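step=predict obj=Ferrous iron transport protein A n=71
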Amino acid sequence: MKLSQLKVGKKGIVKGFTDLEMSVKLMEMGCLPGEEVTVERVAPLGDPIAINVSGYQLSLRKREASTIILL
């Protein structure tokens, strides 16, 4: 499952990434493999989404979230 498919309030564990270039940016922001992420909010039109990771809130575009693979 990809992070972009997770519903509000649900949790997942980061397993890996589909885009190498994007993965570097996401890992610098705390989305490391093994980290738990929770979807906090989704904008009315579905983009962006707010997630909680490593103790802080992070907003991602849907295409960025679709590169994160969850367990």
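step=describe
The first strand starts at residue 11 and ends at 17.
step=end
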